[in-house]
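User: Hey, my collaborator sent me this sequence without any context and asked if I could get a structure. I don't really work with proteins. Can you help?
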Amino acid sequence: MSPDPGFRPVFATVAERSRNQRGPLSRRLRDALVASIQDGTLPASTVLPSERNFAQELGVSRSTLRNSLRDLADLGLVQTRHGAGTVVTGPIPKALTRLSGFTEDIRARGLIPSSDILSRIVAPVLLDVAVRTGMALGTPVLTLTRLRRADGEALSYETVTVPVWAVGEDWPGTGSLYDRMDARGTRPRRMLQTLQAAAVPDAIAAHLAVPPGAPVLRIAQIGYGADGRAVEDALSWYRGDRYKYIGELQG
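Assistant: No problem. I've predicted the 3D structure and written it out in structure-token form, which is a compact way to encode the shape of the chain:
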């Protein structure tokens, strides 16, 4: 079966980008495909043509294309799904202008969110968290360390501290924090957030299945409820190859 004619401009763009680079063909093709995914030429959820048709249209061997697609899979930019073929996953866009949680972002991409609970502690708030957030010393808080996944792929390592009154002491931490807070009327309405490009610490790299020192987005945030009290103190490490932040600035 021939590929969808709508792919012709995509083939032309990828082929031109590959020609304009130097180095081994499989690496040039990989970089051309990465650029096409990142700029939206190949948007998320796109089902790629069959390997035979794709290679033929690009004028490369199937083994060259296969090597490039394997590299893209290692980068988390494509995924082979049973019954669907190779699908573009692409970087997950995170809007700076909308207060949303991990679960909401992943569901919006048509993926299934899940969490591995690495640590769950209920105790009085630690001094550094109290100073940072303004929570009174002695406030009972729930601190979770979680590995956040999309369709089983590890994307984020986070530690989050919330007052027990905001989520309930019985909350296990396995679902969406904001869904739980919505049910109790305690969801953050304002957020202070700091983003920093960083090299992932070795211990966290092992959880995210990336090499030690790989680039990540280190995101620290404090969320405030409708009454102005801090209801969330979080530090997350997002895979730099899988997330991009988008903001709109007006002057």
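In plain terms: Residues 25 and 64 are 7 Å apart (CA to CA). You can pass these tokens on to your collaborator as they are.
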